[in-house]
Each structure stands twice: as structure tokens, then as C-alpha cells.
Write a structure and sequence with these properties.
Elements (H helix, E strand, L loop, with lengths): L1 E7 L6 H14 L4 E7 L10 H4 L3 H5 L7 E5 L13 E5 L12 H6 L3 E4 L2 H10 L4 E4 L24 E6 L8 H11 L6 E7 L6 H18 L11 E4 L4 H10 L2 E4 L8 H8 L3 E5 L14 E3 L1 E5 L16 E5 L1 H12 L3 H9 L8 H8 L2
Parallel strand pairs: 1-2, 1-3, 3-4, 4-5, 5-6, 7-8, 7-10, 8-9, 10-11, 11-12
Antiparallel strand pairs: 13-14
Helix pairs in contact: 6-7, 6-10
């Protein structure tokens, strides 16, 4: 029986917070592990619903005289090495290249082991000078949740092919490029829809809708598209529980991940676990697991990061680089997915190994 202390942002309503809760679910309910957890906060955006009422009180109240492992999950400037806590592990989300200026490499090098979610993140850490052992370990999922039937969100007499994306309306998520590609590639003659579930954490839902609607109108105007020709996208704004997100996954057909930078890409992986067609950008986290054999991959180019959105002052700076997908490549891959035969869908699904993302696989590699 191993005693493990986990410190992470599991109370946040962020991508980092959701991944933290997945780690706790995988570790905490394993019968061979005694888990203690403590929160750390990187943003003021807290998950008051705690994903449909998850209660981690048991793990928060646990306390042991000694620990075999301490896991610190978050930004490396917060890492602290404790020799009296057994193996010191840091879990890091690294989205971009050229992170030498952050000082992260020095903090990561203190640890016994670093865990990242993708080859992209490992490359960035190594190029920055990290000296610690780095393991690429995908985030864990409860696979049973992807084999259930969920109630549909949309009622349709004549079901359409649905592209979709889930992510905050941040620069890195590149939603405007997705809108442009969809509006250029498809018109009202195509039986197709684009659904985008998004939000802006610093604004209420009404303000967010106004900003996102203005951005959508600006894209249409810049493309010189007549309103009568536009296949209007469906924009869903606000915070929704995990059950709603899974309902969205299950009712849609193809996830389009135009993100410029990500360390793992949980929503794209969830799409694959629901056996949906999935398009991802090249050179980002999800591209470690999604390729042309099991999905579709957009061509992209390295460019300097230029973004107003950041959690920490030394992240998403002009010094860093991310991958921007070519607009034509987004369009071409969306068209391929739309026209894919059932045989092609089955072949791609058969080339994806869902067991790689199981909680059991994660625990086995974590303890190895």
C-alpha cells in the first residue's frame, strides 16, 4: 500500500482543474493507494459545482506520518522539493516552445520525475534544459463513461452532420479560424452544422454572448459572405456540467481541434473515446495520440505567440512559439471528414487504442 500526497488545482473551473480531478479519481479510488490531497490555486475561477457534486472530503481529511510519493501538479515555479516525502513528481502542462525565459527548467530539474501529457510538451521541456527524467503519460479517464447512452441535446427530424469544438474563447483556441473555415467550405446546400461550446471566464454569460456574437459577425463580414448563403453556426455560451459535455460529444460527428497550443488535448481525446471522427492540429499535444491513421491532421506552421490571454506573467509571451494551422488545411480536412464513408470511420476507430487512457494504465505507469 502506497501513501501518496497530491497537490493540484482540483477546485478550479479550468482545463487544469478538470485534469486534476481526473488524476484524483484515478489515484484516489485505487485500492492499493492511500491518497491525501491539498489544493493550489492559479486562477480565481472556481468550480463551485465540482463536476456534478464530486466530494473529495475523504482525501482532504487523510493524513499519514510518511509518504512514498508527492505529486505537485501545475506551474513549475510553485514546485518545491521535499526529500522526506519519497519520490517527488511534477506534473506540468507545457503548451508552447521556447520557454527558457520562464525559469521552469530549473524548477523541473529539482524533481525526481516530470510527467507531461504529450511528446510536444516533452520536447519543449528538454529544449528548455530540463535535466529531470521526463515521462510522457496521457491523462487518465474512466472509460465506462464513454460506453454509456446519454440523452440527446438537440431534437432533429432530419439529423445533420455535426462538427463541434469545446473550449474557452481564448486566442490559443483559434475559434475565429474554425468559423472562417466552416463558413468558407460549407453553405446551406450541405447538410452540416458547426456547434461551438465556449465561454469567457472574466465575463458573465450575457457579456460573453455579445463578445462572441460580435466576433462571429466580424468573421462573416471579413469573408464577404452574403447572409443568405451563411450556414449559421450554433454557439453555446456558458459553463455546463460534464454530463452535458458528454451528451454533446455523443450527439456530434466530428471534433475539430484548431487549437494553436496545448499540452494534452482532453476534449479531442474524449471525442476519440466516443468514437467520433477527430481532426487535430499538427504539432500540439493531441497530435501525440491522433494521427492520419486514426483521425485527421491539419498542416500548420510555427509562429511567435501573440496573445492577450495568460494565467501567469511569464506564459504566452512573444518569446514563445505555437503552431498555427493553415486555413485551407482546416477546410480540406473538414471536407474529408464530412464525406468519409462508414468503412473509413470504422478503420480509423480500429486504429485508436482507448486502453492507453484508462485509469488502470495510468496507475501502472505512475507506480512503475
Amino acid at each position: 500500500m502506497k501513501n501518496i500526497l497530491y497537490i493540484g488545482p482540483y477546485k478550479e473551473n479550468t482545463g487544469l482543474g478538470r485534469s486534476a480531478r481526473r488524476y484524483i479519481d484515478a489515484i484516489g479510488y485505487n485500492l492499493n493507494i492511500n491518497l491525501t490531497i491539498r489544493p493550489i490555486y492559479f486562477t480565481p475561477h472556481l468550480d463551485y459545482g465540482n463536476e456534478a457534486g464530486k466530494d473529495y472530503t475523504e482525501f482532504e481529511e487523510n493524513h499519514f506520518k510518511s509518504y512514498d510519493m508527492i505529486i505537485q501538479h501545475g506551474f513549475p515555479e510553485c514546485f518545491d522539493y521535499r526529500a522526506d516525502f519519497g519520490e517527488n513528481i511534477g506534473i506540468v502542462d507545457i503548451d508552447t516552445l521556447n520557454i527558457q525565459h520562464t525559469g521552469w527548467a530549473e524548477r523541473m530539474s529539482m524533481m525526481d520525475r516530470i510527467i507531461v501529457g504529450s511528446n510536444w510538451s516533452k520536447r519543449s521541456a528538454l529544449e528548455a534544459g530540463c535535466q529531470a527524467r521526463i515521462d510522457v503519460l496521457p491523462e487518465p479517464f474512466d472509460l465506462n463513461k464513454f460506453h454509456k447512452e446519454y440523452n440527446p441535446i438537440f431534437e432533429e427530424k432530419n439529423p445533420s452532420f455535426k462538427f463541434y469544438y469545446i473550449g474557452k474563447h481564448y486566442d490559443k483556441n483559434n475559434i475565429k479560424a474554425l468559423l472562417a473555415a466552416f463558413l468558407l467550405e460549407f453553405d446551406k446546400n450541405d447538410n452540416v452544422k458547426l456547434i461551438i461550446k465556449t465561454d469567457l471566464p472574466d465575463f458573465d454569460d450575457q457579456q460573453s454572448k455579445q463578445i462572441i456574437t460580435a466576433d462571429t459577425n466580424a468573421v462573416e463580414k471579413s469573408l464577404r459572405i452574403q447572409n443568405s448563403e451563411v450556414n449559421q453556426p450554433n454557439i453555446i455560451v456558458g459553463y455546463y456540467e460534464q454530463d452535458y459535455i458528454f451528451r454533446l460529444h455523443q450527439q456530434c460527428d466530428c471534433y475539430v481541434n484548431v487549437c494553436k497550443a496545448e499540452s494534452f488535448g482532453a476534449s479531442a481525446i474524449e471525442s476519440m473515446l466516443f468514437k467520433n471522427l477527430t481532426i487535430t492540429n499538427s504539432g500540439i499535444g493531441s497530435n501525440t495520440y491522433i494521427n492520419k491513421d486514426n483521425g485527421y491532421v491539419m498542416d500548420s506552421f510555427l509562429n511567435n505567440v501573440y496573445s492577450k490571454d495568460f494565467y501567469m506573467e511569464n506564459t504566452y509571451t512573444i518569446h514563445e512559439q505555437w503552431h498555427e494551422p493553415y486555413l485551407n488545411s482546416i477546410r480540406q480536412n473538414m471536407r474529408k471528414a464530412y464525406e468519409a464513408t462508414n468503412e473509413e470511420k470504422e478503420r480509423k476507430n480500429s486504429n485508436f487504442n482507448e486502453q492507453l487512457f484508462s485509469e488502470e494504465s495510468f496507475i501502472e505507469r505512475l507506480l512503475a
